[in-house]
Amino acid sequence: MQEHYASNLKMLMTISGLVLLIACANIANLLLARGMSRKAEMSVRTALGAGRARIVRQLLTESLVLAVLSGIAGLIVAYAGTRMLLALAFPSSHSVPIQASPSPAVLAFACGLSLLTGVLFGAAPAWIAAQADPADALRSGARTTASGASLLQRGLVVLQAALSLVLLVGAGLFSQSLNRLQHTDMHVQTQNRYIVHINPQAAGYSQTQLEPLYRLMEDRFHAIPGVVKVGISSYTPMEDDNWGDGVQILGRPYKNEIASVVRVNSDYFDSVGTRVVSGRAITGKDTSTAPAVAVVNQAFVKKLFKPGENPIGQHFGQPGNVSPGDFELVGVVEDSIYQSVYWKDHMMYFLPLMRRAPSDKSPISEDIELYAPAIVLATSHPMNDMEALTRQTLSSINPNLTVVTFQTFDEQIAGNFVEERMIARLTMLFGALALLLATIGLYGVTAYTVARRTSEIGIRMALGAERGGVIAMVMRGALIQTGLGLEIGIPAALVCVRFVKTQLYEIKGVDARVLAVSIIALAVAASLAGLIPARRAASTDPAKALRTE
Description:
The structure is a single chain. The protein has helices at residues 2-37, 39-47, 52-89, 104-130, 134-138, 151-182, 210-222, 268-272, 298-304, 363-368, 386-397, 409-414, 418-452, 454-462, 467-500, 512-538, 542-546; strands at 193-198, 227-233, 244-246, 248-249, 258-264, 276-279, 293-297, 315-317, 327-333, 347-352, 374-379, 403-408. The protein is α+β, with helices and mostly antiparallel strands. The strands form 2 sheets. Strands 3, 4, 5, 6, 7, 8, 9 and 10 form an 8-stranded mixed beta sheet that branches. The protein is elongated. The relative contact order is 0.15.
């Protein structure tokens, strides 16, 4: 499990770190703005003899108090957030196998991180505020036409825009990957198909009783109005199961190829919607006493036979001391996807339901080999009461023959994409949160700039500046910062995709549509963030503005 989930968990931790960095940039900007507004106060304190170290300590203490309060609030949110994550990870589970309470180690890490960010991102604003010149207190009434926000504040906004673009692109790529996964052609038919899992062994059936049991189940299910096909097999497509071993064509050298084996009845291929492309399928005449036959998939033929060679009539079996001519190849079916869509060109062969595979000769394998726990029911139309009918039918055969699981074929396939769906949703959540934080940061800096330039804007309007000109001036500043963020964020996104492309399905680089949508989303958010302060600036009364100081 660690190997399987490690890459995704590390990626999510990295994304969480980027969102944290964007949040910290916002906090730093707020503290810088607060420090600038208290510059006169700090000048007076310095003039009265307060040392710079004492001022820094006071401001850092305020930052730490803010960090502690934020950490406590964050822990409260974390409990609800953890439950939300588990709901995403286990959407259909009644009992989640993981506790939703953060461990002491996680709590300590979160609290430590809150304190660390409070110190790091409160230090620079505190140091800048502590540099106040006492003479500034005597010049507090002087008007200023300063540009407002400092270079550091603008740089933090640019950083936020760049990081949010990277996260937006990542969210788009993972959503695109999930969409491709879900729309992969698996060469099966899922419409009006129902998957039933049973346990004949637990119901008390011995292997000698299985053949009449399977025939009885076929007859009983076929008797249900609307049921057209009844497939029985050892496992089904996109099910978390696999049996396989090496195979060798009779009279040919062993190519060290592994093939999965599935035992099926005569209705199976029609029930799952897999087409026979040559030869024939398994039929009702292929019993345990009939000649041993097998049907293979196209990947089997492609890897073990020459191009254009007819495989029908060839014999194969397990390599080594066992005869490789155990089965006669009588048919070829298309390559349906089993177990995972990531498993490409996988060799498979299908045996009659009561035929043992030659690779399973151990006592344990022979004891369970002929049990077929999967039933595929294909109906002529949707049947909402199919589960109840299934349970009634099995109970009429044997009350101990209970349903282990019942689901539609679509539900079984969708269950294979739980992890990918969770990753896509989380990256979209993080991307949206990053965009929101970046928008708030840009709004805060723009609003702060407008507030500091109130007198300048009043003078401009008193001298005849139009409202549209003032709005354009403020918007230009906001969009320039966003543009600089895009200049940094686009190359960064192109580089970062290299580290996650192994976790994406059939995506090798940044898709132009994903990049364009991310850029547009960021530009729209930046426009909204700049428009509100710009309209406020354009509404400035020149007479009042000139009296602000």
